[in-house]
């Protein structure tokens, strides 16, 4: 038997009273409760055929016998005995499909529910959102209901890209709803974040207050042409001796500070009050350099120092700076590494800042702020040309360092940045 594609082959209706047996088909000896609802109007008179009671492929278990249902009146137009009488299936509109999908739990299968009902009818399709197993796993991990996601796959399935798009939209809505700013109308206390001050932050705050209000600060600034420093750093990076070592202009500044402090010893000193329990005070000039490097770490601002930095070669100083930075960023700086500093450098240029007025580290009398190096127009031999320019800012304890001393010290530091070859003298 051949049926055109699109032709309905079965109709479903409620059971009707009575159950006559056709005259041309003998009634089965043991009646069985119908499983599939009403059968076609005519099966060609063969009780053992599929239409007479044998199950359709994939429709369910085979029944031993099927009790026939009463026939409906044949339509006026004659039909072929091989073409069963059917009622056309009504198409679903997109709205109906969408409504049915919303009523369907994610993960349900696309099946025909063939379970018998009281009325003996067949229920409709239970829709399922199409998606591959990896996509379903991602949705579960993110807590996304696949029924809420707009599917763009070629077969109407939800793709990985659909989940990403949905999650991005959800995150954007969440950020907008719960961003940094609290919602207006809420009590004041609910719009204030309270962060306990403890650990490194508490120690840093106490030290800065003591320094700022015990040591009278004075700050001076100087613009420096660091073009030759940039060239020197470039040559060091290409040198075989510095292979595998991070080299930056900070290395040259550190060497310049050590060199300038040797020429101006009083900047590498400490002011001490109440000597021997008396009202006397003294200045202790250090004949060694424990060079402090201010470092921003996950735990807060720390100033570990390089012990006896004056004895290190340029390569050894570079290795010490690398080790100090790596240890600080990893939060592994030990308390002993932050004690006994004599002079400090703060590299604010790494953050893109031109200069600043840093606060002196407690127990010291000088600190140098290293600003960013950028190309600027510069007058050289009467011509305006682009050069690599930086600004140094220095703060000093005016009880120890007078104006002329601070100026000489900063000028010496600037001289090394302008001509690193002076370090060879």
Number of separate helices:
8
Helix and strand composition category: alpha+beta
The unreliable regions are 32-66, 76-92, 100-126
The total beta strand count reads 12
Radius of gyration equals 44 Å
What does the overall shape look like? Answer: elongated
Terminal Cα span: 108 Å
Overall number of domains: 3
Could you name the CATH topology of the largest domain? Chloramphenicol Acetyltransferase
Name the assembly state: single chain
- Strand residue content: 15-25%
| Full CATH superfamily name of the largest domain | Chloramphenicol acetyltransferase-like domain
Helix content: 25-40%
Concise structural overview:
It is built from 8 helices and 12 strands. It is α+β, with helices and mostly antiparallel strands and 425 residues long.
Observed structural traits:
425 residues; alpha+beta; Dihydrolipoamide Transferase; Chloramphenicol Acetyltransferase; 8-stranded mixed β-sheet; two-stranded antiparallel ribbon; 8 helices; 15% strand; elongated
Walk me through what this model shows.
The longest helix has 18 residues, at 160-177. With 425 residues, the chain is of the alpha+beta class. The strands form three sheets. Strands 3, 6, 7, 8, 9, 10, 11 and 12 form an eight-stranded mixed beta sheet that branches. It has a two-stranded antiparallel ribbon with strand order 1-2. A two-stranded antiparallel sheet has the order 4-5. The chain is 26% helix and 15% strand. It has helices at residues 94-102, 133-142, 160-177, 199-214, 227-238, 249-263, 314-329, 403-418, and strands spanning 111-112, 125-126, 217-225, 269-272, 282-285, 291-297, 300-302, 305-306, 343-346, 366-370, 374-380, 383-397. Residues 32-66, 76-92 and 100-126 have low confidence and may be disordered. The chain has three domains: 1-89, no CATH class; 94-177, E3-binding domain (Dihydrolipoamide Transferase), CATH 4.10.320; 201-424, Chloramphenicol acetyltransferase-like domain (Chloramphenicol Acetyltransferase, 2-Layer Sandwich). Helix 6 packs across helix 7 and helix 6 packs across helix 8.
């Amino acid at each position: 038997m051949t049926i055109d594609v699109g032709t309905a082959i079965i109709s479903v209706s409620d059971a009707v009273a009575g159950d006559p047996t056709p005259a041309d088909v003998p009634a089965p000896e043991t009646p069985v409760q119908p499983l599939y609802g009403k059968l076609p109007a005519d099966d060609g008179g063969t009780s053992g055929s599929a239409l007479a009671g044998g199950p359709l492929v994939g429709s369910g278990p085979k029944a031993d016998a099927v009790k026939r249902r009463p026939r409906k009146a044949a339509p006026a137009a004659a039909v072929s005995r091989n073409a069963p009488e059917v009622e056309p299936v009504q198409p679903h509109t997109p709205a109906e499909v969408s409504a049915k999908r919303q009523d369907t739990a994610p993960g349900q299968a696309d099946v025909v529910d063939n379970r018998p009902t009281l009325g003996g009818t067949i229920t409709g399709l239970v829709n399922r959102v199409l998606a591959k197993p990896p996509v379903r796993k991602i949705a579960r991990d993110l807590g996304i209901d696949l029924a809420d996601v707009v599917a763009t796959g070629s077969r109407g399935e939800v793709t990985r890209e659909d989940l990403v798009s949905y999650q991005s939209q959800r995150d954007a809505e969440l950020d907008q709803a719960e961003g940094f700013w609290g919602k207006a109308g809420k009590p004041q206390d609910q719009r204030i974040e309270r962060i306990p001050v403890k650990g490194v932050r508490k120690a840093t705050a106490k030290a800065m207050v003591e320094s700022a209000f015990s040591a009278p600060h004075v700050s001076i600034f100087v613009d420096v042409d660091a073009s030759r420093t940039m060239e020197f750093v470039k040559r060091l990076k290409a040198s075989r001796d510095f292979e595998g070592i991070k080299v930056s202009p900070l290395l040259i500044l550190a060497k310049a500070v050590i060199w300038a402090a040797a020429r101006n010893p009083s900047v590498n000193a400490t002011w001490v009050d109440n000597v021997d329990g008396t009202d006397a005070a003294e200045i202790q000039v250090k004949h060694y350099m424990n060079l402090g490097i201010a470092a921003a770490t996950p735990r807060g601002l720390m100033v570990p120092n390089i012990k006896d930095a004056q004895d290190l070669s340029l390569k050894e100083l570079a290795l010490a700076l690398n080790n100090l930075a790596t240890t600080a960023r990893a939060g592994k700086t030990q308390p002993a590494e932050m004690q006994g500093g004599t002079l400090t450098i703060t590299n604010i240029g790494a953050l893109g800042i031109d200069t600043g007025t840093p606060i002196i580290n407690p127990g010291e009398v000088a600190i140098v702020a290293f600003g960013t190096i950028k190309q600027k127009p510069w007058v050289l031999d009467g011509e305006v040309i682009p050069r690599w320019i930086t600004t140094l800012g220095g703060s000093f304890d005016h009880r120890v360092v007078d104006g002329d001393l601070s100026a000489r010290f900063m000028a010496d530091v600037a001289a090394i940045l302008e001509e690193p070859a002076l370090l060879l003298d």
